[in-house]
Design a protein that fits this description.
The protein is of the alpha/beta class. It is 42% helix and 20% strand. The chain has a three-stranded parallel sheet, with helices on one face. The protein starts with 10 loop residues before the first strand and ends with a helix.
């Protein structure tokens, strides 16, 4: 997968970011200079990923631990935006 973004500093929301394809997308967007809002259930894994990506790519991150199956998840995410 290869893509280029027009400008750096964009914010990208990634759900399921703590593992699998979500984690891969997080790395790819961070590599392009995007700041990330990382969402998943696992707070510890999100914090670890955020710290790693910030250090590796000099980006900003926001971490939101939320289960998207829950009724309040969209509101919880919207509070951070």
């Amino acid at each position: 997968m290869s893509f280029k973004l027009e400008s750096k500093g964009l914010w990208v929301l990634i759900t399921g970011a703590s593992r699998g394809i979500g984690e891969v997308f997080a790395d790819r967007f961070a590599k392009q200079g995007c700041n990330l809002i990382l969402v998943a259930r696992a707070q510890d894994k999100l914090n670890e990923l955020a710290k790693s990506l910030e250090s590796k790519y000099q980006i900003k991150t926001e971490v939101i631990a939320a289960d998207l199956k829950g009724r309040g998840a969209p509101a919880k995410i919207a509070e951070h935006m």
